[in-house]
From TrEMBL:
<dbReference type="InterPro" id="IPR020894">
    <property type="entry name" value="Cadherin_CS"/>
</dbReference>
<protein>
    <recommendedName>
        <fullName>Cadherin-12</fullName>
    </recommendedName>
</protein>
<dbReference type="GO" id="GO:0034332">
    <property type="term" value="P:adherens junction organization"/>
</dbReference>
<dbReference type="InterPro" id="IPR015919">
    <property type="entry name" value="Cadherin-like_sf"/>
</dbReference>
<dbReference type="Pfam" id="PF01049">
    <property type="entry name" value="CADH_Y-type_LIR"/>
</dbReference>
<comment type="function">
    <text>Cadherins are calcium-dependent cell adhesion proteins. They preferentially interact with themselves in a homophilic manner in connecting cells; cadherins may thus contribute to the sorting of heterogeneous cell types.</text>
</comment>
<dbReference type="GO" id="GO:0000902">
    <property type="term" value="P:cell morphogenesis"/>
</dbReference>
<dbReference type="InterPro" id="IPR027397">
    <property type="entry name" value="Catenin-bd_sf"/>
</dbReference>
<feature type="domain" description="Cadherin">
    <location>
        <begin position="194"/>
        <end position="308"/>
    </location>
</feature>
<feature type="domain" description="Cadherin">
    <location>
        <begin position="85"/>
        <end position="193"/>
    </location>
</feature>
<keyword id="KW-0677">Repeat</keyword>
<dbReference type="InterPro" id="IPR039808">
    <property type="entry name" value="Cadherin"/>
</dbReference>
<feature type="domain" description="Cadherin">
    <location>
        <begin position="309"/>
        <end position="413"/>
    </location>
</feature>
<keyword id="KW-0479">Metal-binding</keyword>
<dbReference type="GO" id="GO:0044331">
    <property type="term" value="P:cell-cell adhesion mediated by cadherin"/>
</dbReference>
<dbReference type="GO" id="GO:0008013">
    <property type="term" value="F:beta-catenin binding"/>
</dbReference>
<feature type="domain" description="Cadherin">
    <location>
        <begin position="4"/>
        <end position="84"/>
    </location>
</feature>
């Protein structure tokens, strides 16, 4: 209630209210100043309100007093129960824990005012879960209440927790939550075999490494506490078997470590021990965490393939051994009770297997072809043995045949040597060390010997020093060598081996004489001309050679020009077929010089036209020109001309063109009369020029001139 001292109760004062919640939560009577709550209040929603009040004159609307502020607090009542904000809870505790072992702490929250009364005072209690667990009423800590709780008996527990305010008194509000508690496993149980003896039956044909049976020990623990390790206790038959643990099933898997043989032993007995891998020292007093069981294995008889006496057979044979020679044998037998016979044959895989044959009954191996160690030094093939009673049961063995060497190749120098000796070499100087190689397979300790051939032993140039370690040295025997006297020396060396029969060969070493300095370093091995002066330098030699080459070039050019000039002289006028004038540019020696030329070559009283056929073309029809007999019969000149004509006809080197060679006497009174062709014919009928048309296009104009125009002797000048 609000009241102003200026209020006389006559209705002249008006009260107003403003601030937090004015008009919505609280209202005021303007006349009396009474403040009322117009709706329910919740302390948990808003614990206090700040308001402002003022007294105002009704008439003037002016405040009568300054505005005053006041606070309205909401008084708490117990209207909220405790709540577990994190529930429901999940917790775990190891099994076999002692009483009072900590499990979990729960917490309930009450929204009431903890400073006013007992509305927010919470007390915890267990409604469900006794007598296994207990809870502290004030702190809410849950602990174990019973000792030795066993997970293998009961693993899951559900505990119902209650939180009540008002200190747990009557009328207080309460809230509950659930706590799910799991007992975690500890290794408190040893593994145990469900039975003391395990019986297994195993075929004798089982492969090594294969699983032949499983046994299992039971451990009620969980996880790594239930992991079991199996071991075979040393004793009878345990060395033939091995045992491992299956990580998924924790079973002991028995595996075969060695082959079984029913005929050798029919049963095996051994013990297997199962133990935990992860032990807990708190439970050692319970007893040993392991158990033992007996395993009996009965071997079942199976029809087995034959068994060879050896895992691998190795044989030796000399190369070039005659075909059909027995080099060894293989043996296999049937170990079963029936003891069947065995047959042998070669496992053919390639052509190499055809070099040998095997006796199907006895198992003896013989050569089928001639062997050559240099071609193949070792043969590797397989022999298969099968039972006669059951051919499908087979066994295989490898056979290795080493081909022994027969000494058939002589030793030779291992590599070609380039040997040189200095001109200033001293006697006894080693200029080359040589080694030998043999194509034969050299046995251990084989030695090669070196020596000079008999024909070289007497020459005082070089010698061979055998070091007796399969090497030899070439030594000088002279004091200096001369390249001018002899540049190359050929030294025959005989090399022998130590095998039987002894093989030897003669190898020739080529030794070159070289120029060296005083330290023996080779400077040059080139050959110098022995006819040159000793002091002639290399530059002088090059100059001399260049001069000789220039002179040879000049001579060749001069000869070529002379031949070209003679050829041009003969071909001066190729188009003029009437006369070829031969030019002689040489000046004669006068009338008294009778040796300059043969005058008989000019003697020609008349041209005898016996056969004027072109040699550069082939005419369709051969026509021979007419000729008239000479005015005077001169037998010696006719014979001379006919001889020359025959020589030109049969001469294969004659030029392929027509050439008119004239022979005449010089001076007046020649019996050959005029050599001109103008007066050779008196009438047109005396000469037929039709054959000119057959000489080709180059004579077309001449053929037209003489073939179409009529001959008029009066026009001849």
């Amino acid at each position: 209630k609000l009241h102003s001292d200026l209020d006389k109760g006559v209705g002249t004062v008006k009260y107003t209210l403003s601030g937090d919640g004015a008009g919505t939560v609280f209202t005021i009577d303007e006349t009396t100043g009474d403040i009322h709550a117009i709706r329910s209040l919740d302390r948990e929603e808003k614990p206090f309100y700040t308001l402002r009040a003022q007294a105002v004159d009704v008439d003037t609307k002016k405040p009568l007093e300054p505005e005053s502020e006041f606070i309205i607090k909401v008084q708490d009542i117990n209207d909220n129960e405790p709540k577990f904000l994190d529930g429901p809870y999940v917790a775990s505790v190891p099994e076999m824990s002692p009483v009072g072992a900590y499990v979990l702490q729960v917490k309930a929250t009450d929204a009431d005012d903890p400073t006013y009364g007992n509305s927010a005072r919470v007390v915890y209690s267990i409604l469900q879960g006794q007598p296994y667990f207990s809870i502290d009423p004030k702190t809410g800590v849950i602990r174990t209440a019973l000792p030795n709780m066993d997970r293998e008996v009961k693993e899951q527990y559900q505990v119902l927790i209650q939180a009540k305010d008002m200190g747990g008194q009557l009328g207080g509000l309460a809230g509950t939550t659930t706590v799910n508690i799991t007992l975690t496993d500890v290794n408190d149980n040893p593994p145990r075999f469900p039975k003391s003896i395990f019986h297994l039956k195993v075929p004798e044909s089982s492969h090594v490494g294969s699983a032949i049976g499983r046994i299992r020990a039971v451990d009620p623990d969980f996880g790594k506490n239930a992991e079991i390790e199996y071991n075979i206790v040393p004793g009878d038959g345990g060395n033939l078997f091995d045992i491992t643990t299956d990580e998924n099933t924790q079973e002991g898997v028995i595996k075969l470590k060695k082959p079984l043989d029913f005929e050798t032993k029919k049963a095996y007995t051994f013990k297997v021990e199962a133990s935990n891998l992860h032990l807990d020292h708190r439970f050692h007093s319970v007893g040993p965490f392991k158990d033992t069981a007996t395993v009996k294995i009965n071997v079942l008889d199976m029809d087995e393939p034959p068994v060879f006496s050896k895992p691998v057979y190795t044989m030796e044979v000399y190369e070039d051994t005659p075909v059909g020679t027995i080099i060894g044998a293989v043996t296999a037998q049937d170990l079963d009770a029936g003891s069947s016979s065995v047959r042998y044959f070669i496992d053919w895989k390639n052509d190499v297997d055809s070099y040998f044959t095997i006796d199907a009954t006895e198992g003896t191996i013989a050569t089928n072809e001639l062997l050559d160690r240099e071609s193949t030094a070792q043969y590797n093939f397989s022999i298969i043995a099968s039972k006669v009673s059951n051919p499908l049961l087979t066994n295989k063995v490898n056979v290795i045949v080493n081909v022994l060497d027969v000494n058939e190749f002589p030793p030779e120098i291992s590599v070609p040597y380039e040997t040189s000796v200095c001109e200033n070499a001293k006697p006894g100087q080693v200029i080359q060390t040589i080694t030998a190689a043999d194509k034969d397979l050299s046995p251990a300790g084989q030695r090669f010997s070196f020596k000079l051939s008999p024909e070289a032993s007497n020459k005082p140039n070089f010698t061979v020093h055998d070091y007796r370690n399969n090497t030899a040295g070439i030594e000088t025997r002279r004091n200096g060598y001369s390249r001018r006297q002899q540049e190359l020396y050929f030294l025959p060396v005989i090399i022998e081996d130590s095998s039987y029969p002894v093989q030897s060969s003669t190898n020739t070493l080529t030794i070159r004489v070289c120029k060296c300095d005083s330290d023996g370093t080779i400077q040059s091995c080139n050959v110098e001309a022995i006819f040159l002066p000793v002091g002639l330098s290399t530059g002088a030699l090059i100059a001399i050679l260049l001069c000789i080459i220039i002179l040879l070039v000049i001579v060749v050019l001069y000869v070529a020009l002379r031949r070209q000039k003679k050829k041009d002289t003969l071909m001066t006028s190729k188009e003029d077929i009437r006369d070829n004038v031969i030019h002689y540019d040489d000046e004669g020696g006068g009338e008294e010089d009778t040796q300059a030329f043969d005058i008989g070559a000019l003697r020609n009283p008349k041209v005898i036209e016996d056969n004027k056929i072109r040699r550069d073309i082939k005419p369709d029809t051969l026509r021979f020109p007419r000729h008239r007999p000479p005015a005077e019969d001169n037998t010696d000149i006719r014979d001379f001309i006919n001889q020359r004509l025959q020589e030109n006809d049969i001469d294969p080197s004659a030029p392929p063109y027509d050439s008119l060679a004239t022979y005449a006497y010089e001076g007046n009174g020649s019996v050959a009369e005029s050599l001109s062709s103008i007066d050779s014919l008196t009438t047109e009928a005396d000469q037929d020029y039709d054959y000119l048309s057959d000489w080709g296009p180059r004579f077309k104009i001449l053929a037209d001139m003489f073939g179409e125009e009529s001959y008029n002797p009066d026009k001849v000048t």
